[in-house]
Structures are given as structure tokens and as C-alpha cells.
Amino acid sequence: MQFGALCLVLSWVPWSVLGVLGADLDEGFAALVFGLAAAGPSLAALAMWLMMRRERRGGPPRADVRVSAVWPVVAIVLGATPPVVAAVVLGLDDLGAIPLHAASVAAGVGGPLGVLAYTLVSGPLSEEFGWRGFVQPRLRLRYGRVRTAVVMAMVWGPWHLPLFFLVGTGQHAKGLFSLQGALFFACLFPLCYTILFVTEHLRGGVWAAVLVHAAWNAADALLPAHGDIGAVVQTAVALAVAGAVAIVWRHGPAEEPDRSGLKR
User: How far is residue 47's CA from residue 52's CA, in Å, rounded to a whole number?
Assistant: First the structure.
């Protein structure tokens, strides 16, 4: 409850003020306020960590991150797959336009390094230390995998609501009361399960969540948009990816590392 309240204050209040003022999110001060508000989940997690440390209150055991080349590659592939597949399937008549579009978008934000910086900071780093670093481990002490993913999506989705009313955001472009808006929320359910897989089963921790989130954002931003049908294909592919992940997880090694009481 404390995390949720703090997260909403840090994010919703500044976003609401920007919306009321009709601020241009591309301008200096407004962009700074917007970015700090977007970091609400991670800032709230930091505040909670400092408070619990001071009060010596316990939390879920800290999971060790496996040093491996597997989970970073898997995280990037799983995150990028839905936008990539949607772009390829819906752009079969002119595949050459895809790299040209990506190059044009990248040039507008400072090239490949600009894309990397934007997609890492805007969303992944600003959010995931809260969602997957703080909330998800605590949910796993109470719930199984599917229920944890469902609850995570039900928390993560509404946090984005003010963005649908802020001109200049991707959510505003979709529209809250539209098919794309509905599919934005629907897509979070399979995405949360996929992220749970790479963070917990592959032991990538919060850094794996950052990579999945960043890969999705980068691919979605760089590749051509296809409106409602593109959103439908992305959601269908995200569901297929989560289904494949569930099969792999279910039929994986019988002896997994000790997860310290986590629900199966």
C-alpha cells in the first residue's frame, strides 16, 4: 500500500499538472518533470528500501542473478519479437521500407546511441526497479506464476492512465477508448508473464526485465506502425510468446534453484 501510494504521488501528480498546463513534453523543464514522474516506480522502490532498511523490516530474499550470456539474449529476443513479427507480417509487400523507416526514426533521436539511451531510460530503467525489483518478488511469496503476472499487469496498466491524456505520449496517440488502447492494457498480461520467466526462471533479475522492456520499446518505436491491425498482431504474438514460455517453464528441469518459498 505504501509503495502504491508513493508511486502514484510521484507519477500521477506531476503528469496531471503537466496535462492541466498543456505543457510541451519536448521542452526542457516539462521534459524533465515528465521524466522524473516516469521514474516514480523506481523512486518509490528506493524510498521503500531506505525506509525498510532504517526500520530493519524484512522483505523477500534477494535472488541471485546468474552470470550468463543466455538470459540477456533471450530477454532481448522475447521483448522484440511481437513488434518485429507484426512489422514483418504486415509489411511483406515492401520489406525494404522497414530498415529505411528504422533509420529515419533513429536519425531523429540522435542515431543508434540516441535510440539506446531513450529506450533504456524511458520506461525500463525508470520503472523496472519498482515493478520487477520491488513489487514482483513480494507477489511471488503469495501467488503462483500466472496470478503474479495477472496482478502485475493489473497494477502496471492503470499506472499509465494519465499518459493517455498527455499530448505527445504514445498512449495519447493510441487513445484510451480505442481498440489500440484496450490492446495496450491486454498486452501487459502476457508481457508480465514473459518478464517473470526471464527474471526468475532464467535468473536474470531486474536487469532481464529492463532488457525485455527496452527491446519491446525500441522495436515498437523503430518499426512502421500499422494501426489497429498492428496492435492486434502484436498482442497475438505476445500471447504466443507467453504460451511458449509457459511450456518451456513447465517442462524445464525438475530441480530448479531454491526460490526460498516462492509459489509455483
Answer: 9
Q: What's the full length of the chain, in residues?
A: 264
DSSP 61: P
Coil/strand/helix, residue 72? helix
Residue bearing the bigger pLDDT, 151 or 51: 151
Task: Report how far Cα 245 is from the mean position of its chain's Cα atoms.
Answer: 17
The pLDDT tens digits of the residues spanning 55-65 come to 655 566 666 78
DSSP character for 203?
A: -
DSSP state of 132: I
- Calculate the CA dihedral of residues 188, 11, 19, 181 and round it to 10 degrees: 10
Closest to 234 measured CA to CA, from 83, 90, 92: 83
Q: What values do phi and psi take at 182, rounded to 5? A: -65, -40
Q: How large is the average pLDDT for residues 81-97? A: 93
